[in-house]
Structure formats: C-alpha cells, structure tokens
Design brief:
By secondary structure, this protein is mainly alpha-helical. It has one domain. 55% of the residues lie in helices and 6% in strands. The strands form 2 sheets. A two-stranded antiparallel ribbon has the order 1-2. α2 packs across α4, α4 runs antiparallel to α6 and α6 runs antiparallel to α8. The longest helix has 34 residues. It is globular. 25% of the residues are buried.
C-alpha cells in the first residue's frame, strides 16, 4: 500500500524560504519525487551517520584501488582514484541499497515509488551528480596515459604535452566550477531540508531511511 507524501506542494513557496531556493527546488521535472503516490515517505536521517557512512565507503574504495593496483594488466586500466570513484558511484546498489558504510550505520537507500533498495542504475544516477566531474577527470587522465606520446611527438614536437595540458585545463576549469556550486548546495540540502533529499535523490527518485544491517546479499540487483 502506498502513502501520499505529507509534505508541502512543491509548487508552493513556504514562508521564510528564500526565493532562490524555491526556484531551484522547482527544477525537478526529471524527478519522480513529485509523484502523488509514493511507497516511502522521505525522511531526514541522522546527518552524522551519513557522514560516517561516506568516510567508510571512501576508505573501502581507496583500499580496493590499492588492491587492484597490485594486479597485472588491471592496474594499467583501473588506477586507484578511478576504482575509488567507481565504487562510490555504485556503492548504493550493494546489500539492497545499503553499501558498506550505510549498512554499518543502519541506513538504506530506497526507491520512493517501490520502497525497494536501490539497484545499480539508481545508484549511478544518485551519485553521478556529485562524482561525475571527478570520474571524468580520472578517466581522461587514464586515456591520455595510453596515447603513444612518442609516436605523436615524432611528427609534432611536444604535441602530447600540449594536448594533455589543454584537455586537462579545460576539464579542471569545468570541474572546479561545478564543485564550487553543486557540491556545497548538495550538502546544504542534506542538512537543511526536512526530507534530507539532495539533487541526486530527486534525480534517482530515492530517499535514505533507517534500516537494520543486512550483509546477506552483496550483489547489485533490481527492484524486488
């Protein structure tokens, strides 16, 4: 049985709410959060638990990157930074939406409409909002390392160095602007909204709830 969301109409502007925030909140045409009927009512969970869960997951991703860096051939493709970011992007699909960090903290990412734990696609949508630029930079770095620089420089002196600096300069500029605007606002939403939802949750149609630890099924899966 579904429950109607008891919050305010997203098109209405609550009292004492900055007009700029109301306008940003309305930019959610891609969000399933505006549905009249939902299975799980969004709720604000302990932000301290969420922070600790993220630190744990970052540590797990970093350790996984170091382990893969010791595997021949794999280490040439999956560098530690890429491994860590990839894990942070897909982590919410593990253990039925808990990942490792949230699992230990008693939290779970669930789909608003079905109430099921986040699947792989949902986890990617939810986390790419934050980690997209970082993932792009690390992937470009890896690709540039695979380019046979000596072969290119043989025909165009210092071409590889110029290419690397130009591409990375543009990406870093875009990534820096994104980081200075989007990530602080995501954190702001997490701490100030009554439902604790950030843009990533609106994009993926998810929310975080309190849930018991469950390490029985680590593999990503679809909604059940």
């Amino acid at each position: 049985m579904t429950r109607s969301f008891k919050g305010q109409d997203p098109d209405s502007e609550p009292e004492n709410k900055p007009s700029w925030q109301s306008k940003l909140d309305r930019i959610q045409s891609f969000s399933r959060y505006s549905s009249d009927e939902i299975a799980v009512e969004p709720q604000k969970t302990d932000t301290g638990k969420r922070l600790v869960a993220f630190i744990i997951d970052a540590g797990v991703g970093y350790c996984a990157g170091l382990m893969l860096a010791c595997v021949p051939l794999v280490k040439d493709v999956l560098h530690p930074p890429i491994t860590m970011i990839l894990y942070l992007v897909i982590r919410d699909s593990l253990f039925q939406g808990r990942g490792i960090g949230k699992n230990l903290m008693g939290l779970q990412v669930v789909d608003l409409k079905s109430g099921a734990g986040a699947d792989l696609i949902t986890s990617i949508k939810r986390n790419i909002v934050i980690f997209g630029p970082a993932l792009l930079v690390t992937l470009v770095l890896s690709i540039l390392k695979l380019i046979p620089g000596a072969l290119i420089d043989q025909y165009i002196p210092n071409a590889t160095s110029f290419l690397n600096q130009s591409v990375l300069g543009i990406i870093n500029l875009i990534g820096s602007g994104y980081t200075l605007v989007v990530i602080p606002y995501e954190v702001y939403r997490t701490f100030t909204r009554d439902d604790g939802m950030r843009w990533g949750d609106q994009f993926a149609g998810t929310t975080i709830i309190e849930a018991p630890m469950d390490f029985s099924n680590p593999l990503p899966g679809g909604h059940r």
